[in-house]
Amino acid sequence: MSNENFSQITVLMVDDESLMLSVLGSICSELRVQKILKAHTAKQALQAHNQEKIDITFLDIEMPDQNGLLTLKEIKAINENNYVLMLSGNGTLDNVKGAQDAGANSFIVKPYSTKKIVKALKQYLIYKEKS
Questions:
Q1: Residue 1 reports pLDDT greater than 80
Q2: Which of 50, 89, 111, 121 is deepest in the core (most CB within 10 A)?
């Protein structure tokens, strides 16, 4: 477990796979993230962004209702400072480059590990300090 303080962070996890949401949610809970929100669709993710102050969004690229890269652009239109980490089981160069070009702050290849999530949250804290 990390000794970083993630207790002031609100996270939105967006993935159509319930198991992935459960795993990511468990990791964030272990790390004592303040508030953990979950969405199964792009539509739910955008609704959450319109209703809550979200610091970090973990966003799956392949969603049933809309491509994650398009959703990323819409999230950034709502809150340009939202820190978005794209998620995919396919870490091809095209996926990573597409995510960067769309405005993603980082990219995580599934499966998740506590180490990957801690690194992402630490990167967010550095990003937040600089902005």
A1: no
A2: 121
Q: Kindly list the distances between the CA atom of residue 93 and the CA atoms of 82, 100, 130, 131, in Å, as whole numbers in the listed order.
A: 23, 10, 28, 28
User: What 3-state class would DSSP assign to 112?
Assistant: coil
What pairing do the DSSP bridges indicate for beta strands 10-14 and 106-109? unpaired
d(CA 38, CA 57): 10
The dihedral built from the CA positions of residue 91, 94, 100 and 104, taken in this order, carries a sign that is negative
Structure tokens at 14: 């967006």
The arrangement of strands across the sheet holding 10-14 comes to: 35-39, 10-14, 56-60, 83-88, 106-109
Q: How does pLDDT run across 74-110, given as a tens digit for each residue?
A: 999 999 999 999 999 887 888 889 999 999 999 999 8
